[in-house]
Amino acid sequence: MKVNNKIYRTVWLENRSVFMIDQTLLPFEFKIFEAKNYHTTCQAIKTMIVRGAGAIGAAAGYAMAQAFFDAPDKGFKEFIAKAKTDIENTRPTAQNLFYATNRVCAAAFKSQTPRKTAVQEAHKIANEDADNAKRIGELGSGLIRSGFKLMTHCNAGWLAFVDWGTALAPTYVSHHNSKNVFVYVSETRPRSQGAKLTAWELKNEGIDHAIIADAASASFISQRKVDLIIVGADRIAANGDVANKTGTLAKAIIAKEYNIPFYVAAPTSTIDLDCQTGRRITIEQRSEDEVLYQTGLNSKGKIEKILVCSPGSKALNPAFDVTPAQYITGLITEKGIIKPDNNSIAELLSQ
Ligand code: MRU
């Protein structure tokens, strides 16, 4: 996608450095962060300089490649095993992270030139992520008619992937095809990925949108002011249950009550067949500071973090919730749009 007329990906590898758009500064500052080794890339994933399922996956694949660069010949395997554990401990819910570390290691250890193969495989993962997201956009745009009012949650736009995004990709394709669309952007407390990142993306693309308080979605849905809801996914269980940013479950239940189609857009790399149901998905518990404090621009134009809750109260911060498959109309993947159930998912993955 373009920023200031220049095409960017969210994350890329150049020489031995991983470069990432620093998402902690957006929408106020556009800066590129450089991680020179896998430890710094891990830190960037943990602190959400890079975030979103596909972008985390690509960053994790590149971090793994960086570990292969840095691993000494003596103790090579032990170094890689430790690096893999470090990378996988950064964020537990996003399936794409584990998909990438496993894929890079499997390919590299099978090869005579593990360092070179690790880099090639990491690039492949990043390229596939961008291609799959584009395809999701093309397939998903078939669900959108001109004049539609869409709703989304969190940010599953291009910043959350290497390019294009998932939940927003159908909107981008529809907009490029001259369909007239409007997006309700749910702010997504506590970190406000909707208000900050999704709104920034849509503004850059010139797509009509409005930020709404998370708590206002029910009212817009109940008044039938929403035609279609599309969200992303951090992990999809074998039975179609979906872990996504906290607040997704409430929207899905309300959408079902009012008969509004509720779709989840995600590449097949987000599906975890080892996870039978959503109850087995590990939900990341993040720092209470994300609830207690907000970061924004102060009157001097400087980014500042301020306390927005009663001093001394504690906070709970589960980053994701699980939406049972029964509330989901369909899964939009790069291989097709399917029902969220065991058979449809197994059949899709066997293609
Ligand atoms: O905690 P984040 O910002 O990394 O959460 C990921 C998300 O952006 C959402 O849950 C998203 O809807 C799915 S990931 C594309």
Low-confidence stretches: none
Ions, cofactors and other ligands present here are:
5-S-methyl-1-O-phosphono-5-thio-D-ribulose
User: What's the helix-strand series?
Assistant: EEEEEHHHHHEHEHEHEEEHEEHEEEEEH
Distance between the termini: 30 Å
**Main pleated sheet:** 7 strands, mixed
Fill in the keyword field for this structure.
single chain, 351 residues, alpha/beta, Four Helix Bundle (Hemerythrin (Met), subunit A), Rossmann fold, 2 domains, seven-stranded mixed sheet, four-stranded mixed sheet, 18 strands, 38% helix, 20% strand, binds 5-S-methyl-1-O-phosphono-5-thio-D-ribulose
Descriptive overview:
This protein is an alpha/beta fold. The protein has two domains: 132 residues, translation initiation factor eif-2b, domain 1 (Four Helix Bundle (Hemerythrin (Met), subunit A), Up-down Bundle); 208 residues, Rossmann fold, CATH 3.40.50. Helix content is 38%, strand content 20%. It contains eleven helices and 18 strands. The strands form five sheets. The protein has a seven-stranded mixed beta sheet with strand order 8-7-6-9-12-17-18, sandwiched between helices. Strands 13-10-11-16 form a four-stranded mixed beta sheet, with helices on one face. Helix 1 runs antiparallel to helix 2, helix 2 packs antiparallel against helix 3 and helix 2 runs parallel beside helix 4. The longest helix has 28 residues. The mean pLDDT is 97. 5-S-methyl-1-O-phosphono-5-thio-D-ribulose binds next to strand 11.
